[in-house]
Amino acid sequence: MGVRLMVVDDHRLLAEALASALKLRGHRVLAATAPTAGAADLVISRAPEVCLLGTGTPAEPGMFDPVVRIKRERPQVAVLVLGPVPSPRGIAAAFAAGASGYVRHDERIEGVERAIMKARAGEAAVAPQLLQGAFGELLNPAAQPDDEGRRLLQLLTPREVEVLVRVADGEDTRLIAAGMGIAPSTARTHVQRVLMKLGVGSRLEAAALAARTGLLDRAGPVSRTSPPETGTGPES
Prior knowledge:
Elements: E1 4-8, H1 12-24, E2 28-33, H2 39-46, E3 50-54, H3 65-73, E4 78-83, H4 88-96, E5 101-104, H5 109-120, E6 125-126, H6 128-139, H7 148-153, H8 158-168, H9 173-180, H10 184-198, H11 203-213, H12 215-219
Parallel strand pairs: 1-2, 1-3, 3-4, 4-5, 5-6
Helix pairs in contact: 2-3, 8-10, 8-11, 9-10
């Protein structure tokens, strides 16, 4: 039997792709929205059985405030947090806020669906490997943990970071070109460079990788007033 659910994520492309996949598997998706700023109001008004709530960096103060409010006003709604690679503090903070589970942004649809069913049944929905990783980090903290998001960010130029942000927002080549004041052929070249540098084969994979690693959060505010450029060759 399908689940009445909502998908809320700051990255519209991810929210819509996940919602479409869940609809195909027989679930009733009440809404797939962005951004998460108004998530609590929307969830409270629609009252789904399960809410998939996207987050950025789990340890950021106030990140799980929407979860707290949803559980206070709609305690019957199970909230599943969608986030990047979590830290032990991130997982703990999600559950402390009242979340029913934590699912990585890059989890396969089968794993997301299992988490949804567990959450609706009132069970804790978190992959065993996430718990193992959390306990492992707590018991044997790395002196200099590998920061994949920072490493990937260093591979991209500022212009490519802006392209990645737009890709994650669900913009197609035409919108990217118009927003950046460049030719569509140049926009396509930038997108292909981003995919190549990130080692992925599609825009959806790039958006998922950026979300999982917290790359876009580390990029900070991205200027969207880049001057027009022409041609498709390498930038100087």
